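Researcher: Next sequence.
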Amino acid sequence: MALFRGKPKTEPASQSASVEALRMPEHIAVIMDGNGRWAEARGLPRVEGHRRGANTVRRISEACRELGVSYLTLYCFSNENWKRPKEELSFLMSLLKTYLIQERPTLIKNDIRLTIIGRRDGIPVEVQSEMDRSVEISKDGKSLTLCLAINYGARQEIVDAVRNIVSKVQSGSLDLASIDESTIANHLYTSGMPDPDLLIRTSGEMRLSNYLLWQISYSELWITDKPWPEFDKEDLVQAITDYNKRDRRFGGLGEVRKH
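Model: Next structure:
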């Protein structure tokens, strides 16, 4: 895992490297941080930051599709976020429900497949129904897989995987001696998806926040001080440009190209 911080740009990212010449990461994961602080810095209620952040989700999803990124995973709501004030939680659940309904035409139009990872405990039944409906409606999307991590925690995910594996061993459907890294990967919420090549975190925080801990073992990390509501396609291209400058050795000595 390698860390690099986004720096203020002296020229547009489109001039620093030809987008067509860039080696696109197959999978980008994002910790969308800074919605509340963005709003508070402008004298707005925190919920307005979340509303603006939802707009950024659409903008960046469409940008990833245009650039040729195959998978985009967004950290929308962690299992620790339940500690927030009830009013904010109520708004977040309402915003999620509205987003799922309103974005369906966009998903279909842009050929985007939606998937959702995380536990369902605590999520209102009506929101769960909209989650299922959006996933079903978009299941044939081929241009981009948009994965929303909702009520998600990486440690929780690993616990669930271990429980599932132990259950199979006890039932005799899985041989204990055959368990390896791929066995664990295949029992994670992200089973069937490639590990992220690039992890982006907005708003400048230097931590992983219990996000995709197994999957990002060899991901490149890119941190920007910009809060999520301000993050745009130019920033995304800059992150991918910096990613292209990395020598991804995966524990070896020479450069390894995955694509």
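Model: The chain has nine helices and seven strands. The first helix runs from residue 13 to 16.
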